[in-house]
Amino acid sequence: MVAPASSWKEAEENLLSCTAQIMNQAVEILRSGSISDSSYRFESKVIAGSTPGKHFRHVLDHLRILTDAIADWQTRIKTDAKAVLRVDYDSRIASKLPHIETSVAASLREFERTTDRLYRVFDGSHGRLYTQPLRLCATTPFVVEMDSTVGRELWFCGLHAIHHYALARVILVKELELKGVDDQFGVAPSTLVHREWRKESNRADTAHDALSQGRNDELPSSSQSSSSQQPSPSSGPSHGQSARASRSPHSHRQHQFKSKL
């Protein structure tokens, strides 16, 4: 259904583009004028202590932490060949930009700035950053470290963003009943691909059914078949049997195709 990337460079480009598109989901809804500052700060009755702005800010926190860590490592590696790239999402940087969870305009600027910075840290990588090892720090509450890669963490940031967009969507659409929120906002890339694939599959089914119906209409009716002379055992297959036989491989493939849905 989806072809794999042919190189680390292509994989990096695809993942970077996907992450940028996920970030752009926020940019578009913030730029649309559908959300006012009061809606952005609205405290959910369903998700305790939650506001749309807090979810957007949390998305930014993670991607900013990752891009900051990469940029810092890129500076250190120039003078220290053994410099280790470390990422700690539990480090608190939200207090530096508290207004991005209360102001739509401020949040929009930060999403645009962060997306631009993401492209800058990957500029000239040609796939090398995609496989670059890093040490991921986590508070569990004890601080532990584990191995990961930049590509893996970039994908995590994208999926993490989708999760929080979906929560923000619950508040905006279900609680505030806002109009103009795009249907694709808060939907994972894999789900969007699957939806498009199902659409194409349904179109193929419809076309095949129409073609099959047209062929069936051309066959003799049962009354005509019964009144015609029956073939002897030594005779070859009837016209209807030949038509069914000629269609059977196609029908079998269609059955296999549908079984995958």
UniProtKB/TrEMBL annotation:
Biased composition (Basic residues): 247-261
Compositionally biased residues, Basic and acidic residues: 198-208
Spans annotated as Disordered: 198-261
Biased composition (Low complexity): 220-246
Name of this protein: DinB-like domain-containing protein
